[in-house]
Amino acid sequence: MFRKIFIFLLIGAVILGLDLIYSTLKDEKLIFISEEEVYSLMNSWALQVGRNPNPKEAKAVIDNLIEEEILYREALRLGLDANDQIIKRRLAQKLMFLKQESRGEKITDEELQEFYVQNKEKYLIPKQYDFTHIFFAKDNDGAQRAKIAFNEIKKSENLKGDVFFLGKNFTNKSAMELRKDFGRDFSMTFETIEQNIWSKPMTSTYGSHLIKIISIKDERLPELEEIKPRVMVDLNLQKKDSALSEYIQELKENYEVVISRSMQETYNE
Length: 269
Description:
single chain; Chitinase A, domain 3; alpha+beta; 10 helices; elongated
């Protein structure tokens, strides 16, 4: 009697096991295309092309999605994802992004104020200049023409130079921006120019200039309310980075890392 029951249970277990295996294999071969996926692809297609796809084009989009999913599953089945540096990097980046975005804490006014105070130097607005200039191109005897113009400008300011591609009048230019646009020597000379008086000829990367500084705005620290959106973005980024660093550190504690002996010296430098 017990032997019959045992055989019956064994047969049932085998049938159940086979059913589970079959169901799993069947699920692995099942590809479900959701409306959300299709709508997303159609919208992307329309944004790129500038119109909605016709029925034939829509079918091609869906076919591409199906083929991509099949190829993806086959690549996983064949183990093509193993030891692929690009895939490793993309998956790591995706996990990093998900972990950063999962932080749901709302930033408080107190946190924002504290972050602003601790990072004031980051928000300093440097000294800025408003100025106009007369330009003389270096390949058109600019240095000599600038000297002549400087002597003439004392009599009349209606002098004409060459066309300058960045324009004639400039506002809110810092020393760093001047160095970037005109060159290091040009930016350094600005400290010696008197306001509202035409300067002696100054040399830039492009030629010679007569400069008149219209106004100077001293370096200042803006109030928090003035730059609140920017500070909010910076604090949010810091919190995301901190959350990611803590997450990675927690994960590291669960892993044992072994570095080859030949690379240990390089790693420890």
